[in-house]
Design brief:
Blueprint (H helix, E strand, L loop, with lengths): L1 E5 L6 H13 L4 E4 L10 H10 L8 H7 L9 H13 L4 H6 L4 E4 L2 E4 L16 H8 L6 E4 L6 E5 L4 E5 L3 E4 L5 E5 L13 E7 L4 E7 L3 H10 L5 H4 L3
């Protein structure tokens, strides 16, 4: 079975639709979204509608949390906070219940899916966790694989029961070891921050026990223009380049 794992769409419909097309061409059997469907980008309603239309299971990201719990917005940096304020004004009455009703984690296909970090945090970044603390966290849930997003940077953490090893996930296929457990960061569809401006997502092949990082081109200039026109912070556009 091939499962596409996407994260951090951030209202970037141009990138999202191209990723969906690529996943379809890759014969993905299912798809899971790791949150932050909204924020930063110009088309939050359209992204939510497409998630719902495709019936893609989705967890709550920190941007969705900012809509569900207004006090959380105080913890966002000024750019993210302003972006979310503009985003909330764009959301329709149908989109709001979807955003506020998302779960903090999902367990599907015997694996865990969470936006920030396991077991269930939408807000914790992978880079905030030391290797010592990482070992303890692996003891807080049972699944072999946990998929995360939030950092916008593809990465893999492997744990053999004794040692934690962290590696950046490069384009292409990575083989998984059946005797190890993993935390796998899917990067970002709509606003990658790993030095490469392609939209990125994962294909998890459960039969082959592999993870493939997929790079997808889209019309970045078009999205940048939409961001400026929507009155969002201009840095949201320049970050895409």
């Amino acid at each position: 079975m091939k499962i596409a794992v996407i994260s951090d769409i951030h209202s970037n419909m141009d990138a999202f639709t191209k990723v969906l097309e690529d996943a379809d061409r890759s014969f993905a059997d299912a798809m899971v979204c790791l949150g932050d469907v909204i924020g930063y980008g110009p088309e939050p309603n359209e992204a939510i509608c497409l998630i719902r239309e495709r019936n893609i299971p989705t967890v709550m990201g920190n941007h969705e949390l900012g809509v569900a719990e207004c006090e959380y917005m105080e913890h966002l940096n000024p750019i993210a906070c302003r972006s979310l304020q503009v985003t909330i004004e764009m959301l329709s009455e149908k989109s709001l219940p979807f955003v506020t009703g998302l779960e903090h984690f999902l367990v599907l296909y015997d694996s865990r899916f969470v936006h920030g970090f396991p077991p269930d945090s939408p807000t914790t970044y992978m880079f905030e966790i030391s290797n010592v603390k990482m070992k303890n966290i692996f003891g807080q849930y049972r699944e072999k694989l946990c998929f995360t997003g939030h950092t916008h940077n593809p990465e893999i953490v492997e744990f053999d029961g004794n040692f934690v090893v962290r590696t950046l996930l490069k384009r292409g296929v990575t083989n998984l070891d059946k005797d190890k457990r993993y935390i796998i960061n899917a990067g970002s569809v709509g606003q990658p921050r790993d030095g490469d401006n392609h939209a990125k997502y994962l294909i998890w092949d459960t039969s082959e026990d592999t993870i493939e990082v997929k790079y997808v081109s889209y019309d970045i200039e078009s999205v940048a223009n939409k961001i400026i026109k929507a009155g969002l912070p201009s840095i949201n556009a320049t970050r895409l380049m």
